[in-house]
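Email to the structure team, subject: ComF family protein model.

Hi all, the expression group asked for a predicted structure before they design truncation constructs. Nothing fancy, just the C-alpha coordinates so they can compare against earlier work. One-line instruction: predict ComF family protein, return C-alpha coordinates.
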Amino acid sequence: MRGWWQEVSGLVLPVACGGCGSPRTALCERCAAALLDVRARRVRPSPEPAGLPVVYAAAVYEDSVRAVLLAHKERGALGLAGVLGQALAGAVRAAAGVPRDGPVLLVPVPSARRAVRARGHDPARRIALAAAGELRRTGTDARVAAVLRQRRAVADQSGLSARQRLVNLSGALEVSAGGDRLLEGGQVVLVDDLMTTGASLVEAARAVADSARTAGVASGGFRAHAIAGDAQRASAAAVVASTPASFEINRN
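Reply from the structure team: attached below.
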Protein backbone atom coordinates (compact mmCIF):
# COMPACT_ATOMS: atom_id res chain seq x y z
CA MET A 1 0.00 0.00 0.00
CA ARG A 2 2.83 2.36 0.87
CA GLY A 3 4.56 1.71 -2.46
CA TRP A 4 1.31 2.37 -4.34
CA TRP A 5 0.82 5.70 -2.56
CA GLN A 6 4.42 6.74 -3.24
CA GLU A 7 3.98 6.16 -6.97
CA VAL A 8 0.66 8.02 -7.15
CA SER A 9 1.86 10.96 -5.06
CA GLY A 10 4.87 11.34 -7.34
CA LEU A 11 2.47 12.03 -10.20
CA VAL A 12 0.34 14.67 -8.51
CA LEU A 13 2.64 16.50 -6.09
CA PRO A 14 5.39 19.00 -6.97
CA VAL A 15 8.68 17.24 -7.62
CA ALA A 16 12.34 18.11 -7.44
CA CYS A 17 15.30 16.47 -9.12
CA GLY A 18 16.40 13.43 -7.14
CA GLY A 19 20.02 14.28 -7.81
CA CYS A 20 20.39 18.03 -7.28
CA GLY A 21 17.00 19.26 -6.10
CA SER A 22 16.18 21.38 -9.14
CA PRO A 23 12.44 22.10 -9.13
CA ARG A 24 9.73 20.75 -11.45
CA THR A 25 11.60 17.67 -12.67
CA ALA A 26 12.07 14.22 -11.19
CA LEU A 27 15.58 14.09 -12.71
CA CYS A 28 17.33 16.89 -14.56
CA GLU A 29 19.41 16.31 -17.70
CA ARG A 30 22.71 16.83 -15.91
CA CYS A 31 21.96 14.28 -13.21
CA ALA A 32 20.59 11.81 -15.74
CA ALA A 33 23.81 12.15 -17.73
CA ALA A 34 25.86 11.23 -14.65
CA LEU A 35 24.09 7.86 -14.74
CA LEU A 36 23.64 7.25 -18.44
CA ASP A 37 26.39 9.06 -20.35
CA VAL A 38 29.18 6.88 -19.00
CA ARG A 39 30.57 3.49 -19.96
CA ALA A 40 30.15 0.67 -17.45
CA ARG A 41 33.49 -0.41 -16.03
CA ARG A 42 34.81 -3.29 -13.99
CA VAL A 43 35.15 -2.44 -10.31
CA ARG A 44 37.00 -4.06 -7.41
CA PRO A 45 36.76 -3.09 -3.76
CA SER A 46 39.85 -2.96 -1.58
CA PRO A 47 40.33 -5.35 0.07
CA GLU A 48 38.80 -7.61 -2.58
CA PRO A 49 36.99 -10.47 -0.83
CA ALA A 50 37.47 -14.07 -1.91
CA GLY A 51 34.58 -15.34 -3.98
CA LEU A 52 33.65 -11.97 -5.45
CA PRO A 53 32.33 -12.38 -9.01
CA VAL A 54 33.47 -10.09 -11.81
CA VAL A 55 31.54 -6.87 -11.16
CA TYR A 56 30.69 -4.03 -13.53
CA ALA A 57 29.29 -0.69 -12.36
CA ALA A 58 27.54 1.98 -14.38
CA ALA A 59 28.55 4.99 -12.27
CA VAL A 60 30.60 6.23 -9.35
CA TYR A 61 28.74 6.43 -6.06
CA GLU A 62 29.16 10.12 -5.35
CA ASP A 63 27.40 13.49 -5.77
CA SER A 64 24.19 13.29 -7.83
CA VAL A 65 24.43 9.52 -8.39
CA ARG A 66 24.52 8.94 -4.65
CA ALA A 67 21.60 11.31 -4.16
CA VAL A 68 19.48 9.59 -6.81
CA LEU A 69 20.10 6.12 -5.37
CA LEU A 70 19.23 7.31 -1.87
CA ALA A 71 16.13 9.11 -3.11
CA HIS A 72 14.91 5.88 -4.72
CA LYS A 73 15.90 3.59 -1.87
CA GLU A 74 15.17 5.61 1.25
CA ARG A 75 12.83 8.43 0.28
CA GLY A 76 10.37 6.55 -1.90
CA ALA A 77 11.15 8.28 -5.21
CA LEU A 78 10.02 5.18 -7.07
CA GLY A 79 9.77 6.98 -10.41
CA LEU A 80 13.57 6.99 -10.52
CA ALA A 81 13.63 3.22 -10.98
CA GLY A 82 13.36 3.66 -14.75
CA VAL A 83 16.55 5.64 -15.23
CA LEU A 84 18.37 3.54 -12.63
CA GLY A 85 17.26 0.48 -14.59
CA GLN A 86 18.70 1.96 -17.78
CA ALA A 87 22.02 2.49 -16.01
CA LEU A 88 21.96 -1.04 -14.60
CA ALA A 89 21.18 -2.45 -18.06
CA GLY A 90 24.43 -0.96 -19.36
CA ALA A 91 26.37 -2.66 -16.55
CA VAL A 92 24.58 -5.96 -17.24
CA ARG A 93 25.57 -5.81 -20.92
CA ALA A 94 29.20 -5.32 -19.90
CA ALA A 95 29.05 -8.12 -17.31
CA ALA A 96 27.29 -10.59 -19.60
CA GLY A 97 29.69 -10.01 -22.50
CA VAL A 98 28.89 -11.66 -25.83
CA PRO A 99 25.32 -13.07 -25.69
CA ARG A 100 25.07 -16.86 -25.71
CA ASP A 101 22.20 -19.33 -25.95
CA GLY A 102 19.44 -18.67 -23.46
CA PRO A 103 18.31 -15.48 -21.75
CA VAL A 104 20.29 -13.22 -19.45
CA LEU A 105 18.89 -13.88 -15.97
CA LEU A 106 19.05 -10.94 -13.60
CA VAL A 107 19.20 -12.21 -10.01
CA PRO A 108 18.70 -9.33 -7.56
CA VAL A 109 20.40 -9.38 -4.16
CA PRO A 110 17.46 -9.16 -1.73
CA SER A 111 17.20 -6.52 0.96
CA ALA A 112 16.66 -7.54 4.57
CA ARG A 113 13.00 -8.20 5.34
CA ARG A 114 12.84 -5.41 7.91
CA ALA A 115 14.32 -2.96 5.40
CA VAL A 116 11.71 -3.93 2.80
CA ARG A 117 8.94 -3.40 5.36
CA ALA A 118 10.35 -0.01 6.38
CA ARG A 119 10.85 1.23 2.82
CA GLY A 120 7.74 -0.31 1.33
CA HIS A 121 9.72 -1.84 -1.56
CA ASP A 122 12.84 -3.80 -2.46
CA PRO A 123 15.08 -1.35 -4.37
CA ALA A 124 17.30 -3.88 -6.13
CA ARG A 125 14.37 -5.93 -7.37
CA ARG A 126 12.52 -2.86 -8.65
CA ILE A 127 15.61 -1.64 -10.53
CA ALA A 128 16.27 -5.14 -11.89
CA LEU A 129 12.77 -5.26 -13.38
CA ALA A 130 13.35 -1.91 -15.06
CA ALA A 131 16.74 -3.08 -16.36
CA ALA A 132 15.26 -6.27 -17.80
CA GLY A 133 12.66 -4.22 -19.63
CA GLU A 134 15.35 -1.94 -21.05
CA LEU A 135 17.44 -4.93 -22.17
CA ARG A 136 14.48 -6.51 -23.95
CA ARG A 137 13.62 -3.20 -25.58
CA THR A 138 17.13 -3.03 -27.03
CA GLY A 139 17.19 -6.62 -28.29
CA THR A 140 18.57 -8.69 -25.42
CA ASP A 141 16.48 -11.58 -24.11
CA ALA A 142 16.44 -10.82 -20.38
CA ARG A 143 14.28 -11.64 -17.40
CA VAL A 144 14.40 -11.26 -13.64
CA ALA A 145 14.84 -14.41 -11.55
CA ALA A 146 14.23 -13.27 -7.97
CA VAL A 147 15.25 -16.62 -6.49
CA LEU A 148 17.41 -15.46 -3.57
CA ARG A 149 15.95 -15.10 -0.10
CA GLN A 150 17.27 -14.55 3.39
CA ARG A 151 17.47 -17.71 5.47
CA ARG A 152 18.31 -15.85 8.68
CA ALA A 153 18.29 -12.34 10.07
CA VAL A 154 21.42 -10.21 9.64
CA ALA A 155 22.65 -7.15 11.52
CA ASP A 156 22.54 -3.68 10.03
CA GLN A 157 25.56 -3.40 7.73
CA SER A 158 26.16 0.31 8.34
CA GLY A 159 29.18 0.87 10.53
CA LEU A 160 30.61 -2.61 9.95
CA SER A 161 34.07 -3.15 8.50
CA ALA A 162 34.57 -5.14 5.30
CA ARG A 163 35.51 -8.26 7.29
CA GLN A 164 32.58 -7.81 9.68
CA ARG A 165 30.20 -7.55 6.73
CA LEU A 166 31.46 -10.82 5.31
CA VAL A 167 30.92 -12.54 8.66
CA ASN A 168 27.53 -10.92 9.10
CA LEU A 169 26.29 -12.16 5.71
CA SER A 170 28.00 -15.56 5.63
CA GLY A 171 25.33 -18.21 5.05
CA ALA A 172 22.53 -15.65 5.14
CA LEU A 173 21.15 -16.25 1.64
CA GLU A 174 19.74 -19.27 -0.13
CA VAL A 175 17.99 -20.05 -3.38
CA SER A 176 14.29 -20.59 -2.79
CA ALA A 177 12.74 -24.01 -3.36
CA GLY A 178 12.62 -24.70 -7.08
CA GLY A 179 14.67 -21.62 -7.84
CA ASP A 180 17.54 -23.62 -9.30
CA ARG A 181 15.26 -24.69 -12.17
CA LEU A 182 14.58 -21.04 -13.01
CA LEU A 183 18.32 -20.53 -13.48
CA GLU A 184 18.85 -23.40 -15.89
CA GLY A 185 19.64 -22.56 -19.49
CA GLY A 186 20.39 -18.90 -18.89
CA GLN A 187 23.32 -16.64 -18.13
CA VAL A 188 23.10 -15.51 -14.52
CA VAL A 189 24.11 -11.96 -13.66
CA LEU A 190 23.76 -10.96 -10.02
CA VAL A 191 22.45 -7.40 -9.72
CA ASP A 192 22.28 -4.79 -6.97
CA ASP A 193 21.95 -1.04 -6.74
CA LEU A 194 25.28 -0.46 -4.96
CA MET A 195 28.53 -2.24 -4.19
CA THR A 196 30.67 -1.04 -1.28
CA THR A 197 32.73 -3.90 0.20
CA GLY A 198 31.36 -6.63 -2.08
CA ALA A 199 30.15 -8.80 0.84
CA SER A 200 26.56 -9.02 -0.43
CA LEU A 201 27.65 -10.15 -3.89
CA VAL A 202 30.04 -12.73 -2.43
CA GLU A 203 27.21 -14.25 -0.41
CA ALA A 204 24.79 -14.15 -3.33
CA ALA A 205 27.31 -15.89 -5.61
CA ARG A 206 27.94 -18.56 -2.96
CA ALA A 207 24.21 -19.23 -2.56
CA VAL A 208 23.67 -19.63 -6.31
CA ALA A 209 26.72 -21.88 -6.75
CA ASP A 210 25.77 -24.05 -3.75
CA SER A 211 22.25 -24.45 -5.11
CA ALA A 212 23.64 -25.55 -8.47
CA ARG A 213 25.88 -28.18 -6.88
CA THR A 214 23.14 -29.46 -4.56
CA ALA A 215 20.61 -29.72 -7.38
CA GLY A 216 23.14 -31.56 -9.54
CA VAL A 217 23.91 -34.16 -6.85
CA ALA A 218 20.22 -34.70 -6.12
CA SER A 219 19.21 -35.04 -9.77
CA GLY A 220 21.89 -37.32 -11.22
CA GLY A 221 22.28 -38.17 -14.89
CA PHE A 222 22.41 -35.54 -17.63
CA ARG A 223 20.92 -32.80 -15.47
CA ALA A 224 23.59 -33.38 -12.83
CA HIS A 225 26.28 -32.91 -15.48
CA ALA A 226 24.61 -29.77 -16.83
CA ILE A 227 24.19 -28.15 -13.42
CA ALA A 228 27.58 -29.19 -12.05
CA GLY A 229 29.22 -27.75 -15.14
CA ASP A 230 27.39 -24.51 -14.47
CA ALA A 231 28.45 -24.13 -10.83
CA GLN A 232 30.30 -20.96 -11.76
CA ARG A 233 27.26 -19.43 -13.41
CA ALA A 234 27.09 -16.59 -10.88
CA SER A 235 30.57 -15.41 -11.85
CA ALA A 236 29.29 -12.06 -13.15
CA ALA A 237 27.55 -9.19 -11.40
CA ALA A 238 26.33 -5.71 -12.27
CA VAL A 239 25.50 -2.74 -10.07
CA VAL A 240 24.27 0.76 -10.70
CA ALA A 241 27.09 2.33 -8.71
CA SER A 242 30.22 1.52 -6.75
CA THR A 243 32.52 3.49 -4.48
CA PRO A 244 35.11 5.80 -6.07
CA ALA A 245 38.01 3.72 -4.73
CA SER A 246 36.75 0.59 -6.49
CA PHE A 247 37.09 2.43 -9.81
CA GLU A 248 40.48 3.88 -8.96
CA ILE A 249 42.13 0.52 -8.21
CA ASN A 250 40.62 -1.18 -11.24
CA ARG A 251 43.37 -3.42 -12.56
CA ASN A 252 42.04 -4.26 -16.02
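Strands lie at 41-43, 54-60, 104-108, 142-144, 148-150, 173-175, 187-195, 236-242. The first strand starts at residue 41 and ends at 43. Ping us if the truncation boundaries need rechecking.
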